[in-house]
Amino acid sequence: MIKVLILTEVDLPSDFPKWVEHYLEGMVNVQVRKTDFEGLKSQFRDARRGQVRADELLDYLEPRVGDYEDFDRIVLIMDDDGYVRGLNFVFGVTKIEGNLVLIFTKRLLGPQDIYYQRILKEVLHELGHTFGLEHCSDPRCVMYFSNTVEDTDNKGPAFCQRCSEKLSRRLRLGKIMHQKFSQA
Ligand SMILES: [Zn+2]
Ligand SMILES: [Zn+2]
Fold first, then answer.
1. pTM over 0.90
2. What is the domain extent for residue 48?
3. Which residues are known catalytic residues?
4. In CATH, what number is assigned to the domain containing residue 161?
5. From the centroid of its chain, how far is CA 145?
6. 138 CA from centroid of ligand 1 (Å)
């Protein structure tokens, strides 16, 4: 089983791990732990913009979480606003094939159930990237790039057929790799 750890500043519904596991085809195990990132964020906050420099934080953390406990992917959910060079803001950042995801929830705020759906979609989107998926041209697919929160609302949490097939192949491979490395 591919192991995903979500460290979150935001209280999530108790079913949240099950939702993520469901859309990742039951091939991941998700654990959630509540935490806060105040110290970390303060080191990467742009004082003028009041936002977290997401790309720099990702570059800083990625080599440091490589073998955090036994998890294959780490997701940090920050109750904050982030940006990367060249963009006004980001909902989330990661790298293709990366092991770390950062999610920023400040611009996802809304009625509680919608808020949780938005966070779910962003988590699935970024995890999709870590499993090798790129952006999808289907606006209903979770891998569609969200320019606005309306884009996020318009897409489902599900992967389209094409993305889903690619994801399945990658998750099966990831499972084999995980077992191999765990035994080594
Ligand atoms: Zn993306
Ligand atoms: Zn797609």
1. yes
2. 2-183
3. 126
4. 3.40.390.10
5. 13
6. 13
